[in-house]
Amino acid sequence: MTYQALNEQTIIAYIKSRPALEHIFPPDEPLTSKEVGDGNLNMVYIIQSAADPTRSAVVKQALPYLRILGESWALTRERMRFETQALLQYNKLTPGLAPEIYDHDDEMSLVIMENLDKHLIMRKALVARQQLPRFADHISTFMARNLFFTSDLYLTGLEKKTLQAQYVNPHLNKIQEDFVFTNPLMESPENNWNALVDDEVKRVRANGALKIAAAEMKESYMTHGQALIHSDLHTGSIMVNANDTRVIDPEFAFYGPMGFDIGAVLENLVLNIAAHYGHTADPEQRTAYQHYLLDMLRSTWEQFAQKFESLWIENNKGELAPPQYWNYPGGEAAFAEFRRRYLLNVLRDTAGHGGCKMLRRMMGVVSVWDISSIVDPVKRAIGERFAIRVGERWLLAHDQVSTIDDLVAIVQDEMQQVK
């Protein structure tokens, strides 16, 4: 079928034409559709049986432009192929931590998947101060397995490069390169920020040490093909309830630095800490939940590092440093030290990329709903100023970080400075 952008009417006929969906929607069954996309790139529809709404699916279709900026910002529809490939990979490596894929159509640039109607977008759950007791376990498992098993630590050079070739994603890379690392730190027409933090924005943009550090992180993003990364793993790309976690929206997937994904998760927890200066008026409730989020941040890294290292010890099959490389007196200790240094470098990348991403949300083209939903600009500025200062410090300190407690301490220190 030749590409056409679907709408709430035409999508019904399209669904009925797909044999792969007959086990959910028999061909003669009345269906309903609703467009629910609130993202920056794509159209998203929920399709339901009119007779039995529990039978449903989500359809996501790429448009040939950047939705948030309009048709003048052309964008390849191939991003939906990357998303579909990545979701299928997640289902293979981390079943139950991404939605199930029912069908996909490369010509129509769409994927049809499980409707996670028992879940919330994580941002909204966090703003509502929900407890997510299994999140750190789930997301650390997701990251450890998907990053390890697509890296040189597990794959041969040929296997890795063959997989890497399927994720050459230059158009969406360009969006991140510009809108995460460069444009927010200079004058650019699409940038947007609260005028009440104009002093902070100007100060950051004039900080030479910070701009050098951001350029170094951009080089890491552009050149360090360490593993298959989601590349947009914020709390708007995660759906949760108290017992379940699912990662969605991996259209930016490519081979990049592990710390870019981990940093995205951790910095989004910090941004939610910032958001509660506007969303939670009671200081005791606010402080208690902010500390809950800090514990979640620490636990996410600690569990990731432990799981990743365990996978490495048990599955050291790659060609980077295979078992026979360490087969000599003292080799076991040397291998342990190599693992320590490797994970330390991932943590430092996490800090640097997390800092860049925090700053871009406060002074670039796209904020986060956690903070943008604070109506009062004065209250919003409290969280924005806090986030800018934490992001600045994470970025500037990234190459001196030695443990996750160093990053937590920066957040705690800035919390104490909030008036």
Overall geometric form: globular
Task: Indicate the structural class.
Answer: alpha+beta
Numbering strands along the chain, what is their spatial order in the largest sheet?
1-2-3-7-6
Mean pLDDT: 96
Strand composition percent: 5-15%
Provide the helix percentage. 40-55%
What profile does the largest beta sheet have? 5 strands, antiparallel
Give a written overview of the molecule.
Strands 1-2-3-7-6 form a 5-stranded antiparallel β-sheet, with helices on one face. It has a 3-stranded antiparallel β-sheet with strand order 8-10-11. Helix 6 (170-182) packs antiparallel against helix 8 (208-223), helix 9 runs antiparallel to helix 13 and helix 11 runs antiparallel to helix 13 (377-397). With 419 residues, it is an alpha+beta fold. The protein has helices at 10-16, 79-93, 122-127, 135-148, 157-165, 170-182, 198-205, 208-223, 258-279, 283-314, 331-363, 369-372, 377-397, 404-417, and strands at residues 31-35, 42-49, 56-62, 65-66, 70-74, 101-105, 110-113, 120-121, 227-229, 238-240, 245-247, 254-256. 51% of the residues lie in helices and 12% in strands.
Short description:
The protein has 14 helices and twelve strands.
List key phrases describing it.
3-stranded antiparallel beta sheet; globular; 12% strand; 419 residues; alpha+beta; 5-stranded antiparallel beta sheet
Topology:
Blueprint: H1 10-16, E1 31-35, E2 42-49, E3 56-62, E4 65-66, E5 70-74, H2 79-93, E6 101-105, E7 110-113, E8 120-121, H3 122-127, H4 135-148, H5 157-165, H6 170-182, H7 198-205, H8 208-223, E9 227-229, E10 238-240, E11 245-247, E12 254-256, H9 258-279, H10 283-314, H11 331-363, H12 369-372, H13 377-397, H14 404-417
Antiparallel strand pairs: 1-2, 2-3, 3-7, 4-5, 6-7, 8-10, 9-12, 10-11
Helix pairs in contact: 4-10, 6-8, 8-11, 9-10, 9-11, 9-13, 10-14, 11-13, 13-14
